[in-house]
Specification:
Layout (H helix, E strand, L loop, with lengths): L1 H15 L17 H17 L6 H27 L8 H22 L1
Helix pairs in contact: 1-3, 2-3, 2-4, 3-4
Length: 114
């Protein structure tokens, strides 16, 4: 995520200094698509209902932060890195990798809560 963010800042700074083209509007790791959030949330829900858990506000917060938000942002970072700031033009392999990162992060968050 840090590498993708540094690349984004570098492209924006290069444009500001009149040394590069205008960056894409989607060239930011925080502009993750709803599909990535949906995949992460679905993975969290599937894993949470198969594992016996004690539901509390802390558990739900862990799922929201570590299970949905961070995996979706990490998955979008994969696509930003693979396409140099144009995640809407990502090839299928990087989209598949991003979907796997989102789902894996969602599943991992349930492991953290157990």
């Amino acid at each position: 995520m840090v590498l993708a963010r540094v690349g984004t800042e570098r492209r924006h700074w290069s444009h500001y200094k009149k040394r590069g083209p205008v960056p894409d509007r989607r060239d930011d790791i925080t502009h993750a698509s709803g599909v990535l959030y949906g995949i992460a949330a679905l993975a969290v829900a599937a894993a949470a209902f198969t594992v016996p858990l004690e539901w509390s506000l802390s558990t739900v917060g862990t799922f929201a932060l570590f299970g949905v938000l961070l995996p979706a942002l990490a998955a979008n970072s994969v696509m930003v890195l693979a396409t140099r700031g144009r995640p809407d033009r990502a090839p299928r392999w990087s989209q598949g990798l991003a979907y796997a990162v989102a789902a894996g992060g969602g599943l991992l968050s349930v492991g953290l809560a157990v």
